[in-house]
Amino acid sequence: MKIVVIGGTGLIGSKVVTNLRQRGHEVVAASPSTGVNTLTGEGLAEALTGAQVVVDVANSPSFEDKPAMDFFATSGRNLLAAEKVAGVKHHVALSVVGTDRLTGSGPGSLSGYFRAKMAQENLIKASGIPFTIVHATQFFEFVKSITQSASGDSTIRLSPVLMQPMVSDDVAAAVADAALGKPMNGMVEIAGPDQIRQDELVRQYLSAQGDARKVVIDANAGYFGITVNDQSLVPGSNAHLGPTHFAEWLNRSKTQKTTDKQSTSASSLSGKAAQVVALLLCGIVFAGLSFRDAAADESSTDKPKVATESKEAKVTPLLSKDLKDFPGKEGLMITVEYPPGSVDPIHRHNAHGFIYVLEGSIVMQVRGGKEVTLTPGQTFYEGPEDVHVVGRNASQTKAAKFVVFFVKNKGAPVLVPAK
Question: Which of 8, 159, 179, 269 is the most exposed place for a label (fewest CB within 10 A)?
């Protein structure tokens, strides 16, 4: 069926989109970057046409009281009104465990944000559209923000409040399950497999990061300025628990950090070296073949000279930007145009690569994975350690075009030749 994911290019949204597409559904990743804006209504009607399910995982760009309320109220009204017109049968929204318990006042607190989330939930309940609201506990990925919010010069003051956090992958899987299930017209809670106190959570995170700062327990510190107790951030007894433990995620993150450091120290790109990498990405092997063939033609006296069409791909840089919220990381966006018959050499990207097909069809495969043929609107992902063994135009007669977004270490090569 057709499913529209609002916020489909964000942390959770992109994972939900991938999950649902892997299950064989038609999925629209809707966000302002793809031409769908719930605040203005732009592109909503077109995106929702023929959709049976809408999944809303969009988040306010600001946690301040008024901007958050404006976002969730306006976005919610526009989205639900468009769903009614389109005949959507199931609305799924992601919210937070304890939202109704986190609306107390406090200077500089996030209480206004949670009041805005409550307003969003109330709009959903009053809409008349069958719904499921998924309440998730805090993500493992948020531990860095928790640490920063409580950091002093050499110590970090935290409340020992009980938590039950979970990894974003498990959140996305649970949201996808809800989208494929029947509307509950109510709320389901999801959480990680283990309960842990906030101070110990951060203590383990700092240890894994090699950070020597000390965590000091402060019972009055609360949670982002909100007074909390041991029931505020944990789910009830009927919560669905994800399988990933915090220690497992820390080990995985530590391994990735080590790999990233090795990649960064291996090479730094000058402008000229970056051009060389781009040529490799375009299919420099075919440029070499074309040169060899041309030379052979010129050296032959008994064959007519025949002009050969280049099979070199064309790469166009669109955007390069430092990701200030992720120190040492940068984003790189390009378009790649495959002429008919174009083929890439075997390679590996020192990056997380997200591919979205615009025109034609392409064939992609990483070592150990299946060969897939992608058509317009379909996506492909490969990680820093994946070896890209197949990358080619599926057609010998028609061109293909796709956009690639890389998240990579700043200054590190985006491509390494592989065997």
Answer: 269
Structure letter (DSSP) for residue 53: E
Residue 408 belongs to a domain with what CATH number?
Answer: 2.60.120.10
Q: What's residue 221's pLDDT? A: 87
What does 221-257 look like in DSSP terms, one character per residue?
A: -TBTTB---TTTSS--TTPEEPS--HHHHHHHHHHHH
From 241, 262, 283, give the residue that closes a domain: 262
DSSP string, 149-215: HTB-SSEEEE---EE--B-HHHHHHHHHHHHHS---SEEEEEE-S--EEHHHHHHHHHHHHT--PEE
246-266 helix and 198-209 helix, angle to the nearest 10 degrees: 30
List, for residues 275-312, the tens digit of each pLDDT value: 434 444 444 333 333 333 333 343 443 444 333 345 67
Spatial contact of 81 and 122, defined as CB atoms under 8 Å apart:
no
Domain count, the chain: 2
Q: CA-CA distance, 131 to 179, in Å (whole number)? A: 10
Q: How far is residue 67's CA from residue 117's CA, in Å, rounded to a whole number? A: 12
Statement to judge: residues 189 and 285 lie in one domain:
no
Give alpha helix (H) positions in 95-167.
Answer: 111-126, 143-149
Burial of 312 (0-12, 13-18, 19+ CB in 10 A): buried
